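Please, structure for the following, as tokens.
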Amino acid sequence: MENSIEVKNLTKSYGSRLVVSNLNFAVKKGEVFGLLGPNGAGKSTTIDCILGLKPFENGSVRVLGMDPTRERKRLFERVGVQLQSSSYQGNIRVGEVCEEIAALYQSPADYHDLLSQFKLDQYLKQPVAKLSGGEKQKLSVLLALIPQPEVLFLDELTTGLDTEARREVWHVLTALKEKGLTLFLTSHYMDEVEVLCDRICIISQGHALVTDTVPKLIQKSPYKRLEEAYLWVMKEEIAV
């Protein structure tokens, strides 16, 4: 199967601090791939390097067959990005920010449909600043879908959402996966990872400890749940 993302020997430092170390993985087209690890493991930096937002010292990255550093403009027509922190200008309203994002793309999705899917349509004329934390997070995912992307990057997508809101987002993402969209996500919620991810890569201090399907990773551990298997992998790393 064709790969949507290929990362080979990726290495990134900040001064003398090595943040990503010789990282290798590939994400198949239509797959939901989870990059997991504790805070400071290098997950967000890896996403930044994959998107061409940060330079790196060694290795190579291809997204949809493109070099993200050299072909960033062309690439951004075909990917959607929801990053950890999204800031919005002054008193901008929900409908206005949707319209601004849609204006950046040649063939944007109908954001009214997306607002309805995410149950945000009643907030069309409301200032973004007055949304709850959970509503803002859903809006950031929605904005990442406006380009009608082939690959969607989601960095801690449901942090701050209550249980009902998280499940609404999961439902939308599962439907997108069924349509063939490739999803690349980071998350600290193992129930979310179990529901959404086909394969996962667990990293610690910038290097990969294991890359496997969720069922196989659980099977290799002494446990029956991903959360416990994940903690087991991390403890094995500390013990080495």
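The chain has a mean pLDDT of 91. The first strand starts at residue 3 and ends at 14.
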